Amino acid sequence: MVVMPSEARTLDHKIRHERRQQDALALTKETRMKATQVEHRRRQHRKQTFILTQTTKDSPGTMRQQKNLADRFKNASRKIIKKLKNTRRFFNEERRVLNETREYRDGMPSWLPAINFVDIHFYTYRKRGATISERKFSYLMPKLYKSLVEYQEIFKLLLNIEVDFADDPFSSYNKTRHELIGKTLQRLYSTVAEIKENMIAVNVPVPQVNKSRNLQALEQKVDAPQCLKNDYIAFRAYGNLLNNWYSEFRCPRGKKVITSNMRCASYEAKLKEKKEKRNKNTER
User: Fold this and answer.
1) φ and ψ of 105, to 5 deg
2) Burial class (CB in 10 A: 0-12, 13-18, 19+), 263
3) Which domain of life does the UniProt lineage start with (predicted)?
């Protein structure tokens, strides 16, 4: 086969053109590979930086750990406050079924436990290395636990009191009081168990509550009027206890809620009055 000079030039030009295209493709592919490797290195660098940042934030003693610790105590407090609220509500509703007479409204017998809410409300929480939620929980919950366990013992004794000379009207009352005391004890057991469970969950020691010697003054064989009097004193004191504890949790000292809420303002004003009166008696 004979190739003319003009055709030979055309063929050479075609071969050179194909080589240039192949070289351009090879160059483009190599450039892309290098760009991909650079981008991959950049992403790896960014990822490592993020991991280091996260590790630094999550290290012991940082703000995040303190927040998590505070949240544990806040959640435990919320559960207990909710339980206390329901205990208080049910008791206030059910105690209305008993007829309370003016004749038995006075009295502060020795067998009734005294809870100093003045000292509790105005207590200064000072403890290094702990959040305010932890400090409040560690101070308040053992006192709440102890006070409720003490009333458990009182209601157990009231439930087993023997009444002399009971007439028909008192027999009807006695049946109702047994129902109320039984329900009160059931809710007390449940509330005390809730407090204990949450204290254990956040590693706060559960106090050992010994039976008070003063309970010996609560006689187990009485006449009907004395039984009525003991009931009223115990129910009134327990109702006040639940109200005060609930107010203490809902109206913490130094918070704006004290001034914006009438009940909280009334609660703190009452405690301030008691505190001032006690200080005057001490000065004398």
Assistant:
1) -85, -10
2) middle
3) Eukaryota
